[in-house]
Amino acid sequence: MDMKNKTWYDIFMDALHKKFPKKTLLTKGLMDLLNLEREAVYRRLRKEVVFTSHEVVKIVSAYGISLDEIAGINTEQFSFQMRQMNYLNPSKSEQVFLKFVIKSIRELNRFPDSEIMEICNKFPRSILAGFEYLNQFHLFKWKYQYGDETESTPFAKIKISQEEKQIVNDYYEAIKHITTTNIILDKKIFEYLVNDISYFCSIYLITKEEKELIRKDLMNLLDYWLDVANKGYFPETRNKVNLYISHLNIETNYSYTFSPEASISFIAVFEKFEVFSLNTEFVANFMTWMQWKKRTATQISEVDERSRVEFFTKQRQLIENM
To answer: In percent, how much of the chain has pLDDT > 90?
Structure first.
């Protein structure tokens, strides 16, 4: 069909299929998102039944489809979405979104040039997720800063559901199947985390015993990433990892994922929100800008053994003295 003769609904359906070229993945995603039976989703995808306006709104919101682009409006502006995530007690829609992200990441391992890049001044969940007490601390800090309770919740009372633990574990495993991972860390990233842990211990929200458990997890994290840096790949999958230390301070966390079929950029905002865009032009420019960050960073994975040893030795001393 000629583009000028397409209706907004045709463009919407094209955008939906573009995001999910694999029909089984699209069908399952829509079943979870819209609470529909498989056959009901099939009828909509075959255009025998039209998605309701309410369903369209849910789909474009969950999957980042631009309404301006669907309507054919050329605003010469990039579309972004801001999503507030409650990682401690995710709602049904948040669980659907997180599972959608994990499925999308798993799909990337089919492409030899798939890539993820993280620039961090605080450890992202892709790193902390594999360490029980560090992941609990991340959620504890999030609740302390953004929870609605009038009284502060101590570390011991942060309860993580089995479903949330499974989601975290699935994410931690999926992220290692991307062909290439690039990570640029703020040179003080361990110092920031140690200071946070010590502060909460000083106001008695974390006990000395709990602090020791977190400290041991930090040591395990350090040992794991030293192994990754020495080898230049994840030991579980042997997929490439390039680890860098920035010479300049990093303002916040940025990341992108890329594959030939789709790419997306994320920017963390105050730890509570994530701003993300799927606009092809913006993501391409964003990826180029992030690659430039390597110019002010030192690669310590595989190469530059002296810098690698110095960095990890300094972090080990910092953790031992916390």
So the answer is: 35
CA distance 191 to 181: 23
- What is the pairing mode between strands 263-269 and 297-299? unpaired
> What are the residue ranges of helices labelled H in 23-109?
23-34, 38-45, 53-63, 67-71, 92-108
**CA–CA dist 93, 98 (Å, integer):** 9
pTM confidence score = 0.73
Q: How far apart are CA 229 and CA 127, in angstroms?
A: 14
Closest listed residue to residue 215, CA positions, set 130, 143, 318, 312: 318
Q: What is the pLDDT of residues 176-192, one digit of tens each?
A: 999 999 999 999 999 99
Weakest-pLDDT range from 110-119, 209-218, 274-283, 301-310? 274-283
CATH number for the 3-71 domain, one of 2.40.50, 2.60.40, 1.10.260, 1.25.40? 1.10.260
Tell me which amino acid residue 9 is: Y
3-state secondary structure of 318: helix
CATH entry, 81-320, from 3.90.550, 3.40.50, 1.10.246, 3.30.870: 3.30.870
Q: How far apart are CA 242 and CA 294, in angstroms?
A: 11
Separation of alpha carbons 284 and 278, rounded Å = 10
